[in-house]
Amino acid sequence: MADIELTPDTLIVHIRGTDKFFALKSQLEVPLSHIAGVEATAPEAHEVWHGMKVAGSNLPGVITAGRFVQHGEWAFWDVHNPDQAISIRLHDEHYAKLVIGVDDPSGTVAAITTAIARR
Length: 119
What we know:
Elements: E1 2-6, E2 10-15, H1 19-23, E3 27-31, E4 35-39, E5 52-59, E6 63-70, E7 73-79, E8 85-90, E9 97-101, H2 105-118
Parallel strand pairs: 7-9
Antiparallel strand pairs: 1-2, 2-3, 4-8, 5-6, 6-7, 8-9
């Protein structure tokens, strides 16, 4: 799981606890202007295959964390429970997509959408 922090110009993903080890990352920062879209559900999180794992962990039904190549694009994952995963599409960034597990998917998406609109 991760915590999402929003500043006036940036979305910061703080990877929690042991997920730092599994994802090989502790934090990601993305300018709000590089967010193309955000969804409160991530249907791909329910699938077994999440792309080609480049660095990280993929234990189906337990954790998917780290860097993957999906359909020719880089994606970053940190998901335990697919029902709590949100999908953040990016442009002009190394990752084309972030799939992140959060405590409150709909509330997190609403906060991100509001932050983008304020910008």
